[in-house]
Design goal:
The protein has about 300 residues and is of the alpha/beta class. The protein is about 40% helix and about 25% strand. The chain has ten helices and 14 strands. Strand 9, helix 5 and strand 10 form a beta-alpha-beta unit.
C-alpha cells in the first residue's frame, strides 16, 4: 500500500487569462478548480497510473471538504486529520504565451495535539512494507523538530519505505531518516547544497552528496531536460522525448507517484528512472493539475532513453 502525506493541502484554482498583466483588470476565459497539495496530487496521479493509495494529512474548513468530495468522486481513499482554520486556496494563472503565474496562500496553523493525531493516523495506515510519500510544504507554524519526528516515526515502522519531495531545511531534515528516494528539482537540490549545480556532472555530484547525508537514491528532475537519477553505485541521465507543454504544474508530483509505484512493483533501477521521467513528461501535456493516463505514460516510456553517466 502507498500512503501519501500532505501537511499543507490546497484547492488549486487555475484560470486562463489570455493577456495577463499585473496592475490591470484581467478577464479569465476559462477556469477550473482541483483538489491540490503535493501529496494529494501524488494520490491523484497514482489513481491514473492504476495504483491504489490512501491520502493522509491535515485538512480544514470548506475547502478541505471540497478536497474530500473530489477525492471521493475520483475513488481515492483518504484518512485526514481535520483541524481548525481553512485550507489554502492557490491561484494559478495561465496566459496565451504559456507563462504560468502562481499565487499560493500560506495555509492554516496546526497545534501540537493535532500534529500528534496526524502521526498516529500515519502509523495506523503505514503497515509493514507500506510506502509513505511525504510531499510538499508545511503549515507556517510547524516546527522543524515536528517534521523530523514525523520522518523518524515513518522510517521506524517495520518494512516501511519513505519517499520525500521537499525543499530546503525540510529536505535536509528528512535525510536523517534514510528515505528510499528523494525527488528534488535542481533548485531544491541547491537549497541543501548551498549552490546551484550548473552542469550534469555537478548535479550528479550534488545527488551523491544527498546520499552521503542519508538518502538511498536521488531523482533530480530537470524539466524539459529530463532527469538525473543516482544510487550509491550508478548514475543515469534520463531523456524523455520532447512533447508540447500545456500544463507544467504538478509534473514533479506525477514523477514522485511513478517512483512510488515502481518501488512497490520492485522495478529495477533503470526502469524506475525511465518510467518516472516519462510520467512527469506525460503530465505536462495536460492542463491544470489533471493527470495523464497510464497509456500515455507508457507510450512516452517506450521513447525514453537512459544514458549511464
Amino acid at each position: 500500500m502507498i500512503i501519501t502525506v500532505t501537511l499543507n493541502p490546497a484547492v488549486d484554482r487555475t484560470m486562463h487569462v489570455p493577456k495577463f498583466c499585473a496592475g490591470r483588470v484581467n478577464r479569465a476565459t476559462a477556469a477550473r478548480v482541483d483538489a491540490g497539495g503535493k501529496g494529494i496530487n501524488v494520490s491523484k496521479a497514482l489513481k491514473e497510473l492504476g495504483c491504489e493509495s490512501v491520502a493522509c494529512g491535515l485538512i480544514a474548513g470548506r475547502y478541505g471538504r471540497m478536497i474530500k468530495e473530489q477525492l471521493t468522486a475520483s475513488g481515492i481513499k483518504y484518512d485526514f486529520v481535520e483541524v481548525p482554520g481553512e485550507t489554502r486556496l492557490n491561484i494559478k494563472i495561465i496566459s496565451d504565451d504559456g507563462t504560468h503565474t502562481d499565487i499560493n496562500e500560506p495555509g492554516f496553523a496546526v497545534s501540537e495535539a493535532d500534529f500528534d493525531r496526524l502521526i498516529e493516523r500515519v502509523e495506523k495506515n503505514a503497515r509493514r512494507d507500506a510506502i509513505v510519500v511525504l510531499s510538499g510544504s508545511v503549515p507556517p507554524n510547524l516546527a522543524l523538530s515536528a517534521y523530523e519526528r514525523l520522518c523518524g516515526t515513518i522510517a521506524a515502522r517495520p518494512g516501511v519505505r519513505l519517499i520525500v519531495d521537499a525543499d530546503g531545511v525540510h529536505l535536509r531534515a528528512a535525510l536523517a531518516s534514510h528515505p528510499v528516494y528523494i525527488k528534488p528539482n535542481v533548485s531544491e537540490l541547491a537549497s541543501v547544497l548551498g549552490y546551484e549545480p550548473a552542469t550534469i556532472p555537478q548535479i550528479v555530484e550534488g545527488a551523491r552528496k544527498m546520499i552521503e547525508l542519508g538518502a538511498q537514491n536521488v531523482a533530480v528532475s530537470m524539466g524539459g531536460d529530463g532527469a538525473v537519477v543516482v544510487s550509491d553505485s550508478r548514475a543515469l541521465l534520463v531523456k524523455p522525448p520532447k512533447v508540447p507543454v500545456v500544463g507544467p504544474v504538478g509534473a514533479g508530483d506525477v514523477m514522485v507517484a511513478a517512483i512510488a509505484q515502481a518501488v512497490e512493483d520492485n522495478n529495477d533501477f533503470e526502469s524506475l528512472a525511465r518510467y518516472s521521467a516519462a510520467a512527469g513528461t506525460a503530465s505536462v501535456t495536460i492542463e491544470g493539475t489533471r493527470m495523464a493516463s497510464r497509456r500515455t505514460v507508457l507510450q512516452i516510456f517506450e521513447k525514453t532513453e537512459a544514458v549511464e553517466l
